[in-house]
């Protein structure tokens, strides 16, 4: 398959974001976005997704983390879409279950060209450190909307909010890796009877 990379720069009155994705990387992450917990989660996506991520963001975190988290998600989604292009030869679907101690999460993805998110994550705390747990769903909504991915993300059980969110990001990374992987039997065709995704 051709070089599967995507780069996006996004600048608004609230944030400046630069994202580079290499779908065929080794799981390395260079991330500085001013939201430490998100940086930790994005490193999980890179490592367990087997993709290289370079993300820089400068946002109005003195107001709230919301704008930065959402705009990083938007730019990441756009970079992913650029990296897989017309999706010829990819597997399209991916799923993963990931445990982390007492927590268990599941991610099921379809690189369908139709954005959609179902996120069921009942977290026991409103904050993990300084991170607002409401932003977990906001991040994934931004990614899936701008990557045009259908995603069902579920935290199936858990007590520790950090564990629950971390295993969800890891599951997302593993499912993304599987969905974006080349399908050797597809002979470079788009995985849809419509001929396009």
Question: Helical region count?
Answer: 4
CATH-defined fold name: Ribosomal Protein S5, domain 2
Q: Within the largest sheet, what's the order of strands?
A: 1-2-4-3
Low-confidence stretches are none
Mean pLDDT across all amino acids: 96
Notable characteristics:
197 residues, Ribosomal Protein S5, domain 2, four-stranded mixed beta sheet, 34% helix
Task: Write structural notes for this entry.
This protein is α+β, with helices and mostly antiparallel strands. The protein has a single domain, classed as Ribosomal Protein S5, domain 2. 34% of the residues lie in helices and 30% in strands. It has four helices and ten strands. It has a four-stranded mixed β-sheet, with helices on one face. Strand 3, helix 1 and strand 4 form a beta-alpha-beta unit. The protein is globular and about 50 Å long. The two termini are 17 Å apart. The model has no long low-confidence stretch (mean pLDDT 96).
